[in-house]
Design goal:
This protein is an all-alpha fold. The protein is built from nine helices and two strands. It has one domain: Up-down Bundle (Ferritin). Strands 1-2 form a two-stranded parallel ribbon. Helix 5 packs antiparallel against helix 6.
């Protein structure tokens, strides 16, 4: 499947943003670059906007979902909006500004292309945000060691919210699959397509993973032990593939 087949439309962005399609087109700074942290905060701000837009689209596109599920998605919208504002504030305090660096909207373009709520929750919450809580577990530890209290509080707030987002998706999807086994096929197909799309965006960089699967936070987020073992094995395979390149 080519690039066009994997992706839907771009979310709206104003003229301040430099929107790119692939990771290689972005500003990939070395770890010792003085703007490395500011660029990261700018990128995270836009990714939180993507998450907000995906959740808002879910509310608009699936009005017949149960009230309990819609309430959780609405709360996620509020959380993601708060995260975007937090990242913007800290980024600007450190000398950055909106539009200072290129951004990717791959999450929105991948997720909103799917036509079922189950597929969207499986890819956004159970996959992208699950990887996010793994990365945040590492970020919290490293930031605590660095003594950057302001950034540590941001990561801790974000981690708590993202765990809740992953947990409600896990609970809903488990129930939906039990009620209708066809949901599992829909989810599997979406995950396969999302994996292909991710590879299109990131290329060889997709294998450069700097965190480990956090069993503790994944358990809190509603993953089963077998799922955690599977995620750990998959991450190890990805890292091994990166070393061979």
């Amino acid at each position: 499947m080519g690039m066009d087949g994997y992706f839907g439309e771009e979310p709206a962005r104003d003229a301040r943003f430099q929107v790119k399609q692939r990771w290689s087109e972005c500003c990939n700074l070395s770890d010792d670059h003085p703007q490395k942290r500011t660029e990261f905060l700018h990128r995270q701000m836009n990714e939180e906007l993507n998450s907000l837009e995906i959740s808002a689209r879910a509310l608009a596109d699936f009005p017949d979902a149960s009230w309990a599920l819609r309430l959780r998605i609405a709360r996620q919208c509020a959380d993601e909006a708060r995260h975007a504002l937090m990242f913007r504030a800290v980024m600007e305090q450190r000398g950055g500004f909106v539009g200072a660096y290129p951004v990717l909207n791959f999450q929105y373009r991948i997720v909103c292309r799917f036509t079922t709520l189950e597929a969207r929750l499986a890819v956004q919450n159970k996959t992208f945000e699950a990887g996010g809580i793994d990365a945040l577990a590492t970020a919290v530890t490293e930031t605590a060691q660095s003594g950057d209290g302001e950034l540590l509080r941001l990561f801790e707030y974000q981690e708590a919210d993202e765990i809740a987002h992953v947990r409600y998706a896990n609970e809903y999807l488990r129930s939906a699959m039990a009620a209708d086994p066809r949901v599992a096929l829909d989810v599997a197909r979406a995950l396969t397509e999302a994996s292909g799309a991710f590879a299109e965006v990131f290329g060889s960089a997709a294998h450069r993973v700097r965190y480990e699967v956090s069993a503790e936070t994944r358990l809190e987020a509603g993953f089963l032990p077998d799922e955690i073992r599977g995620a750990t094995a998959a991450l190890a395979k990805k890292k091994a593939a990166g070393l061979q390149r």
